[in-house]
Amino acid sequence: MTDHRPIVVGVDGSQSSLQAVVCAAEEAALRRTPLTLATTVFVPGARGVPSAGLKPSSPSSGSLLPSEWPFDRNAQPARVLKTS
């Protein structure tokens, strides 16, 4: 009996998280199982998050925006099953 649990990986645009995405995508392809990428956006002062002393992310912070992630989106056929 095979177990097809989905693979979930968090990604924040850092180099290490982008490497984790690549590894997770390869593993999901090998297992023929769904892959979910989870990310979030931090907005200081929103919903009870204190903004004192916190600076919003900037291009110099080392994290990239999702549109800047260096993936070849044409390398493998893919489809988005769900976004939220």
Sequence-ordered SSE layout with sheet pairings:
Layout (H helix, E strand, L loop, with lengths): L6 E4 L4 H17 L3 E4 L46
Parallel strand pairs: 1-2
Structural class: alpha+beta
Largest sheet: number of strands, sense, barrel closure: 2 strands, parallel
Helix content: 10-25%
- Overall average residue pLDDT: 70
Q: Termini separation (Å)?
A: 31 Å
Low-confidence stretches: none
| β-strand amount | 5-15%
Total count of helical runs of at least 4 residues: 1
User: What general form does the structure show?
Assistant: flat
Strand arrangement, major sheet: 1-2
For the secondary structure, the number of strands is: 2
Gyration radius, rounded = 16 Å
H/E order of the elements?
Answer: EHE
Outline:
The protein is built from 1 helix and 2 strands, in the order βαβ. It has 84 residues and is α+β, with helices and mostly antiparallel strands. Strand 1 (7-10), helix 1 (15-31) and strand 2 form a beta-alpha-beta unit.
Explain this structure to me?
InterPro entries: Rossmann-like_a/b/a_fold, UspA. It comes from Rhodococcus koreensis. This is Universal stress protein family protein. Pfam families: Usp. The longest helix has 17 residues, at about 15-30. This protein has a domain at about 1-40. It is built from one helix and two strands, in the order E-H-E. The model has no long low-confidence stretch (mean pLDDT about 70). It has about 80 residues and is of the alpha+beta class. It is about 20% helix and about 10% strand. The two termini are about 30 Å apart. Strand 1, helix 1 and strand 2 form a beta-alpha-beta unit.
